[in-house]
Design a protein that fits this description.
Elements: E1 4-10, E2 15-18, E3 24-36, E4 39-50, H1 51-60, E5 66-79, E6 85-98
Length: about 130
Amino acid sequence: MNIVILSGNLGQDPQIRYTTQGVPVAQFSIAVNYVKGDEKRTNWINVVAFRKQAELVVDYLKKGSRVAIEGTLRTRTWTDPNGINRKIVEVVARRIEFLSPKKTEEATPDVGQPDETPPPPDNGDVVDDDIPF
């Protein structure tokens, strides 16, 4: 069984590239905090997402965004341009949940648009006879 579930914050903005077949691939790392004894520690976990999920990650996540990742652990090896063999362990995301609250831009009312809520009456006194129940 190869299942990984993590929750953490992005360490940098996600990067996107495309395979030779045109498949989008997003890569990013998340900081996963844990406590060992009295000491707070952080593990940096590399994550990769494919296709539509990759596009959504790039469009909606940025450095500091909180996410939950479910996926599989994969080890990948390659030879860099200097001829050195490299190895990386990463999580291939199957499911990503965006946990940071959606930030909305401060709305400024349009000039000439009426308020949606009418102003309260000038006298704030409520008489029992005005209540319909």
